[in-house]
């Protein structure tokens, strides 16, 4: 009778916890649906710390090729900041794949058009988008570790024996039966073994925790991918067929997988709390993990395919949302000729950016004063070229480019750790572009202030020859410089464009509009005057400039 009452109590408790969990899940889903309906296309509020960005990059770094965007170019274009701005992704695979997508330009238009079909489908079908976003948000992300790292580690981890866990659990069972003969000794053995299991559980769990978290996530990934199959539209036909094969292949892994699962897998927190105590006392998750590891390693290809499909879906949704956020976007057109045409391009990180247009049929030398917009324009063009070949999106009214490899040499620094000067870093950065041009592939490069790390005479001479060498190869080069002498030494090889400013009532005003021809003004001394430098100093500086322009040599002071 007493046993029946206890059994009934646990049955009622189970039903209550199950119902509570279902109610909680329903509320969560409704809250997510409302959020995704109201906030689509609004500014992304997510903030990524450096260590999180580093973890996200690991999936891509394991798959880098010669065609990937190198670290210098990525950093020059402030792509970490841009990635943070567009990271509307909801899952760890989504984070990984969006980063991977941005660092791996595509050279085949067919691939980009398939990607475009998916992004456009998400943009046009709100109900499909919201259903997918709700699922992806419930899947969530691992915040403590890199999922791709621990998926890789899981495949290399050696399987361990469960004998010690079985012996400890066996003694607990024996102690229960022994209570019928001597209840005191039986209870003593029971509590000692439970205490032993709890102590050793935390010791073993400390090592296994990252693996367990990753394994739990893999099962969630599989479950939510299975649900996604019923939502994904025709544009994902190939991926749906692939998912179907993965589900069939991995069916055996479902048996008792709840033993290693974490909160959220079952209906509610109450049930999970009970399971946590059972895991702690009987090592259920550790035993199951050790048994599953070898089985898991047999499905390495399927798991990475699962990661890719869910990640790409999440990334395409993020791109669709990013397009909705941006003021204006257009799909690129790919030219086979050596030409770049851009109408009203702008930079995504600059609020109320001034748009500029460019018809680039030849290499370009860009001159202008300090802060006039030269570097920003280089970055604007670079980001648009990168986006065109990755997410099939440009911040412009119109954008035409050839398929190309993108290089920059812009935001270089001295490296104390490598004992490398600025000049050394600069010539290495430029040489990598010249080396890459030995291949037949088309290259577009942006160079800001060529060889600024050395003296004027050698800088003019060396810069002229380097830029001339670039013009004679399969390179389209856009170089910014303060050295107006280069506009004359390279006038046969480079078209001249410039940015200019105007002085209004003592203030230097910039239009940030690109104009043809070489710059005819400079503002370095004007800026000194605006900041309150001594008038006599300003006057003497202007006299020196006038003398040099007339005589071609400097006044001895």
Can you walk through the features of this model?
- This protein has 557 residues and is of the alpha/beta class.
- It has 3 domains: 2-325, no CATH class; 333-519, Rossmann fold, CATH 3.40.50; 523-557, no CATH class.
- The chain contains 20 helices and 12 strands.
- The strands form 3 sheets. It has a 6-stranded mixed beta sheet with strand order 6-7-8-4-9-12, sandwiched between helices. A 4-stranded mixed beta sheet has the order 1-5-2-3, with helices on one face. Strands 10-11 form a two-stranded antiparallel ribbon.
- Helix 16 links the parallel strand 6 (405-409) and strand 7 (443-448).
- Helix 7 (126-139) runs antiparallel to helix 10.
Oligomerization category of the chains in this entry? single chain
The tally of helices reads 20
Mean pLDDT over the full residue set: 86
DSSP strand content: 5-15%
The end-to-end span amounts to 110 Å
Query: What's the β-strand tally?
Result: 12
> Main beta sheet, described?
6 strands, mixed
Portion of residues in helices? 55-70%
Going across the biggest sheet, name each strand in turn. 6-7-8-4-9-12
Structural class from helices and strands?
alpha/beta
Low-pLDDT runs of 5+ residues are: 263-268, 414-418
Determine Rg (CA atoms, Å): 31 Å
Overall shape: it is elongated
Total tally of structural domains: 3
């Amino acid at each position: 009778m007493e046993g029946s009452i206890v059994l009934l109590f646990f049955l009622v408790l189970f039903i209550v916890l199950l119902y509570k969990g279902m109610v909680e899940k329903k509320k969560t889903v409704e809250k997510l649906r409302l959020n995704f309906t109201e906030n689509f296309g609004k500014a992304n509020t997510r903030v990524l710390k450096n260590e999180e960005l580093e973890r996200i990059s690991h999936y891509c770094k394991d798959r880098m090729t010669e065609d990937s965007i190198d670290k210098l170019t990525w950093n020059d274009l402030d792509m970490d900041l841009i990635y943070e701005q567009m990271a509307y992704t909801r899952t760890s695979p989504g984070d990984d794949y969006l980063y991977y997508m941005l660092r791996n330009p595509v050279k085949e238009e067919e691939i980009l058009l398939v990607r475009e079909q998916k992004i456009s489908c998400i943009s046009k079908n709100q109900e499909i988008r919201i259903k997918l976003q709700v699922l992806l948000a419930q899947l969530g992300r691992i915040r403590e570790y890199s999922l791709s790292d621990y998926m890789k580690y899981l495949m290399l981890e050696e399987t361990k024996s469960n004998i010690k866990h079985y012996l400890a659990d066996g003694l607990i069972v024996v102690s229960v039966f022994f209570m019928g003969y001597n209840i005191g000794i039986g209870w003593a053995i029971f509590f000692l073994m439970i205490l032993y299991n709890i102590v050793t559980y935390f010791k073993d769990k400390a090592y296994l925790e990252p693996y367990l978290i990753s394994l739990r996530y893999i099962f969630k990934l599989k479950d939510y991918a299975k649900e996604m199959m019923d939502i994904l539209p025709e544009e994902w036909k190939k991926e749906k067929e692939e998912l179907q094969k993965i589900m069939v292949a991995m069916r055996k892994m479902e048996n008792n997988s709840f033993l290693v699962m974490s909160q959220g897998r079952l209906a509610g927190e109450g049930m999970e709390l009970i399971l946590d105590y059972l895991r702690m006392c009987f090592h259920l998750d550790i035993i199951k993990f050790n048994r599953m590891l070898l089985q898991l390693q047999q499905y390495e290809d399927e798991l990475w395919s699962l990661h890719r499909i869910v990640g790409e879906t999440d990334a395409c949704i993020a791109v669709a949302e990013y397009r909705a956020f941006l003021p204006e976007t257009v799909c690129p057109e790919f030219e086979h000729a050596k030409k770049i045409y851009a109408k009203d391009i702008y930079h995504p990180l600059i609020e109320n950016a001034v748009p500029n247009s460019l018809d680039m049929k030849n290499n370009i030398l860009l001159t202008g004063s300090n802060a006039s917009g030269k570097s920003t324009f280089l970055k604007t063009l670079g980001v648009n070229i990168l986006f065109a070949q990755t997410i099939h999106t440009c911040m412009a009214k119109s954008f035409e480019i050839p398929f190309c490899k993108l290089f920059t040499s812009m935001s270089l620094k001295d490296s104390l750790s490598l004992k490398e000067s600025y000049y050394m870093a600069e010539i290495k950065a430029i040489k990598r572009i010249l080396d890459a041009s030995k291949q037949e592939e088309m290259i577009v490069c942006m160079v800001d202030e060529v060889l600024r790390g050395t003296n004027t005479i050698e800088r003019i001479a060396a810069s002229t020859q380097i830029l001339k060498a670039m013009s004679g190869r399969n390179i389209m080069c856009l170089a910014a410089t303060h050295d107006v002498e280069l506009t004359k030494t390279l006038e046969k090889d480079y078209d001249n464009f410039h940015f200019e400013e105007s002085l209004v009532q003592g203030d230097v005003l910039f239009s940030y509009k690109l104009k043809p021809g070489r710059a005819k003004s400079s503002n370095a001394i004007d800026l000194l005057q605006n900041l309150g430098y001594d008038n006599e100093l300003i006057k003497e500086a202007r006299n020196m400039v006038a003398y040099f322009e007339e005589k071609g040599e400097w006044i001895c002071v």
